[in-house]
Amino acid sequence: KDGMRNVASFNIMMKGLFDHGDIGKASSVWELMQESGIVADSTTHGILVHGLCENGYSSNSLHVLKTAEGKGDVLDCFAYSAMINGLCKQGKTDEAASVLYDMVKSGYTVNAHVYNALINGFVGASKIKDAIRLYHEMGKTHCAPTVVTYNTLINGLCKAERFSEAYDLVREMLEKGCQPGVITISILIKGLCLGHKEDMALNLWNLGISRSLKPDVQMHNILIHGLCTAGKTQLAYPLYLDMNRFNCAPNLVTHNTLMEGFYKEGDLRNASVIWARILRNGLQPDVISYNITLKGLSSCNRVSAAIL
């Protein structure tokens, strides 16, 4: 009914239609809203921009944003971050950067969520230099980086094999009182291991532990896998034995990784110990477990045991 039509009801209807991917009907509701003389609010524009971008219509979304700016309509950071995300997903990072700078020129206070959207876009496009530059711009505008900011940059730096800079970012987090969590440390440890920087990865692990970080099973598995792959299974084994200290139970992936590491190093005894622990801990060996065992026994000239 006309008497029940207000901006909130139109917003709810448009969001529901966008969420279901019905762009045509959502656009029709938007047109009806304008014809009804109801003034759009910041939520309306956020829903429109986000909905169009999520469904692959970033050009239409940008038109909505620019039209709203031209009319002096109310916009908020959600609309801008959605627009930036949408453009970045299509590889249009230059256009996304223009949106952010237009936002600044218009006098909007850019929050970390908006900066993070563009930083993530730059990292995804392998433009790590631009991502770092934008990170420094955040500091100049007194916008404090969040854990998401650091995680995105650390991931990008690791992919670019700039491990020392990634490590320095973690130290910077600590200096600024931003405690890196399991996800942050895990991202960097994985990157360091892929870059054959196992010693740095172990140092980072110890730094995290000294700061009361409680690693989960995935974080353990990342470092254990990195060490075993590098032929340093003897360094990985104590991490496995120490997991109970963090109330963290090793899973089948943990055991398989260690077992394969020991076999590759010709350590049949410890590989057999891990197999026994799999059974003792009530874990069910999978195809990977059996393949590791068969290949390992064969490589150790225990073909008869492998057949049995």
From TrEMBL:
<feature type="repeat" description="PPR">
    <location>
        <begin position="6"/>
        <end position="40"/>
    </location>
</feature>
<keyword id="KW-0677">Repeat</keyword>
<dbReference type="Pfam" id="PF13041">
    <property type="entry name" value="PPR_2"/>
</dbReference>
<dbReference type="InterPro" id="IPR002885">
    <property type="entry name" value="PPR_rpt"/>
</dbReference>
<dbReference type="InterPro" id="IPR051222">
    <property type="entry name" value="PPR/CCM1_RNA-binding"/>
</dbReference>
<feature type="repeat" description="PPR">
    <location>
        <begin position="251"/>
        <end position="285"/>
    </location>
</feature>
<feature type="repeat" description="PPR">
    <location>
        <begin position="111"/>
        <end position="145"/>
    </location>
</feature>
<dbReference type="InterPro" id="IPR011990">
    <property type="entry name" value="TPR-like_helical_dom_sf"/>
</dbReference>
<feature type="repeat" description="PPR">
    <location>
        <begin position="216"/>
        <end position="250"/>
    </location>
</feature>
<protein>
    <submittedName>
        <fullName>Pentatricopeptide repeat-containing protein</fullName>
    </submittedName>
</protein>
<feature type="repeat" description="PPR">
    <location>
        <begin position="76"/>
        <end position="110"/>
    </location>
</feature>
<feature type="repeat" description="PPR">
    <location>
        <begin position="146"/>
        <end position="180"/>
    </location>
</feature>
